[in-house]
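Help! Submission page says 'invalid entity' but I think these are all valid:
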Amino acid sequence: MKKVNYLEIEGRSRGFLALLGVLGVIVLAGLSGMYYMEHNGHYVTGMDNQIVWGMPHVFAVFLIVAASGALNVASIGTVFGKAMYKPLGRLSSLLAIALLAGGLMVLVLDLGRPDRLVIAMTYYNFKSIFAWNIILYNGFFAIVIVYLWMMMQASMNKYYRAAGFVAFFWRLILTTGTGSIFGFLVARQGYDAAIMAPMFIIMSFAFGLAIFLLVLMMGYRWTERPLGDEMIRKLKNLLGVFVGAVMYFVLVYHLTNLYATEHHGVEKFILAGDSEHTPIFWFLQILVGGVVPLVILYSKLGASRLWIGLASVLVILGGLAQMYVIIIGGQAYPLDIFPGMEIVNSSFADGNSYHAYTPSMAETLLGISGFAVALLIVTLGVRVLRFMPDSLADKDVDPHHKG
Amino acid sequence: MSKSEAASNGLSRRKFLGASVAAGASVAPGISLISVANAKPVDQAISDEKRWGMLIDTNKCAKGCSACVDACNTENGLNTGDEQNSRQEQKAQWIRKVDLRDKLTGHEVSLPLMCQHCENPPCVDVCPTGASFKREDGVVLVDKHICIGCRYCMMACPYKARSFIHEELTNQVENTPRGKGTVESCTLCVHRIDEDTNNQRDPACAEACNTEGHKAMIFGDLKDASSDVSKALKQHSSKAIREDLGLNPGIRYRGI
């Protein structure tokens, strides 16, 4: 195993410029959507007083969760001492920061008053999980940047393990905070569950790694740098474990709810209802985002990078579907304001049927642009600073490499 | 001196002064011409000596009557044709009529539902900036100046009592400033109850219900044992909606 040599990418090819162009167009489209929403007000969106959080939250929460998961690869090298993962630490940290930035951008731009961001930073209600999250997100940026600095400056290397530990614990707390946004909501049948926090952590492992794998494989393919099969094999096996773990948590969450009579309504709504949430759950979240990737990753197909890439894309799609079911589905099921009573009539859309939600183009574009912002940051980041080792060939990075 | 001691000293001093003046104005033992013990000038800070609340008698609430809803809309400038672009599900509504049927017995009731002004309001807990707040006298409000429009309070409220403003508003009424991109809900008509004691009026909904002759909504100070609402609460059994959540709302119901 030789010393790892990190190098900027050249970034002069047509492909590089085309990538920047495509990402730039998506960001612009998202910002136009945001301008349209904020100029007119949220009436132009699919959101209303029943579905108060829509598509932007689906994407924003997904990206924020994935951000903390993307840092995992670095943590495995630093905290768990796996030598082979250490060369990936810089890229993993960069991706984590980028995904968080993308997610937060979407979250902030969907506020009713995004111009009051400074108020969110200066007025704190410390009982609010949202307020904790604002501190956790800002802290994440600061800690990961310091972590990167410790990794990237030779004279600071001696502190990098300590910084890695801090970052690892901070990211666990951060995802606990994100999961608790829903876990602590007593009012709604679909939420109010302690399992939300650990489930979000395991979701972050899967989503973050899926995005990392795609970025890694594409980055090394496009720059024609060597990327060893053993490295990919390890990462794809890990992705399989995480995807399985997510499905386990989903199973426990639903089994717990199914055992309690009071939750039968919401369970029937999600698992066997007549809304879009039932097919999204079974088909997209479970089949496309869980079963199929597992089959790909653990069958012979898992030897092919193309298939591993496809599995990663499916994990991301399944993750977005899961967020949709959690966030939109959780609101679509009506509040149980009067247990034991049936609502015959109401002028404010109370009642026994679910709330429908049709996302507008503008809010969906804003959500998607979060991805583009994250990838733009990564693309520019690897262009100007030394995040990517010039070789990740097994003989260069695998301490157990034979031959 | 602890906070509670200070409060009790302050209270006794005020009571003493009040009693002295009242004694001066009384014509015979037990009969006084004026009562100043409860007088509160408009510029005086809100205190926890009062807790505003309401008892809603669903037996008296008429099905199909929406006098309270109409009065609220007029009083606060809601639904005045201003939210023209918003869909029905997007329009603000601070108080709504709900008709219910007991799933087992088939018993039907009709009731008005609005912000329940909880003692432990989940909306206040979750608000990141503190825009959602509870006054000392129990009224739960939104500070429109620091609301960032995140809508987390709407996710947290078990009564779905809050509305988000989905578009630019004009023609607002003076006593109820509202703004696009912020969240709002029933204020218990603070602009009415914060008036000098002599000018104090019931919230518009309760007033309309009385005018209509139903008298289903009794408003008053839950801490004052002699108030109509306290007396009625003492006399009859009542319930809070979603009592299991332990939020101790200021709005109570009979007959549910």
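Support: the input was valid. A stray whitespace character was the problem, and the output above is from the cleaned input. The first helix of chain A runs from residue 14 to 40.
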